[in-house]
Amino acid sequence: MNTFARDLPTRYGVVAMTLHWLIAAAIITNIIVVLAAPEDHSPEQTAMMSFHMALGLTVLVLSILRLVWRWLNPVPPPPQDLAPWMRIAGTAMHHLLYFLMVAIPLAGWLMVSASHFTPSWFGLFAWPAFPGFGGLDNAAGHQWHETFESIHITLGWAMIVLVPAHIAAALYHHFLRQNNVLLRMLPGIRLRRGA
Questions:
Q1: Is 188 left (phi over 0), alpha (psi -120 to 50) or beta?
Q2: Can you give the pLDDT at residue 134?
Q3: Cα Rg for the chain, rounded, in angstroms?
Q4: Going from the N-terminus, what domains does the chain have, and what CATH number goes with each?
Q5: Could you tell me the pTM of the whole model?
Q6: What is the per-residue pLDDT for 2?
């Protein structure tokens, strides 16, 4: 496989970079949309929530692709001079981010599937119900909808906290520790020597 596409010991490849920045942009956009959406059942809210659902389903697909790519391509190791607790914290943050990137949109998909709502993927096609949830009766559907709505919202708030923490950690490495943690995820940027 082309080394330009694959992750290297010193930096991420173009596939990982592309997926990372697409997912990051989608997540940040979705956070802004859901926080800005009115709660008045207006046409504006309906449009914003339809966009939120379509973008969330996109995050789900891209995140699964990102996890498969990560499994097939070992990621660059953390800097050698990191304290053990920083390595553990960094690994934990990444694992939690990956969990949330899949679990939040999955809970949203289960939530709308249980309520017999068929989201549109940006007006191009109807997204199918999650297998086994399309035929639920109204009582069971309502119960599952409430359960997955609570999960979706709770995990969403966790993501709202974790995204700024992840950004702050990258900036900390770049400006204070002056290593290549951030630079190795930026395309076309030369790495710092000896960092």
A1: left
A2: 80
A3: 19
A4: 14-185 (1.20.950)
A5: 0.94
A6: 59
Tell me what pLDDT residue 3 has. Answer: 60
Q: Which long-range contacts (C-beta less than 8 Å, at least 24 apart) are formed by 89-94?
A: 90/169, 93/162, 93/165, 93/166, 93/169
Note the maximum CA span of the chain: 62
**pLDDT digits over 79-104, tens only?**
999 999 999 999 999 999 999 999 99
> Which ranges of the chain have pLDDT less than 70?
1-3
What is the DSSP-derived secondary structure letter of residue 124?
Answer: T
Identify whether the C-beta of residue 8 lies closer than 8 Å to the C-beta of residue 41. Answer: no
Residue 151 has what pLDDT?
98
Alpha-carbon distances, residue 52 vs 39, 121, 122 (angstroms): 14, 10, 10
Q: ∠ CA 195-86-77 to the nearest 5 degrees?
A: 50
Which of 8, 113, 9, 11 has its CA nearest to residue 60? 113
Q: What is the spatial distance between Cα 17 and Cα 21, in angstroms, rounded to a whole number?
A: 6
DSSP annotation of 177 reads I
- CA gap 20, 27 in Å, rounded: 11
Long-range contacts of 176-181 (CB under 8 A, 24+ apart): 177/79, 179/79, 179/81, 180/10, 180/11, 180/79, 181/78, 181/79
CA-to-CA separations, 39 to 35, 36, 53, 106, 142, in angstroms, rounded:
10, 9, 16, 23, 20
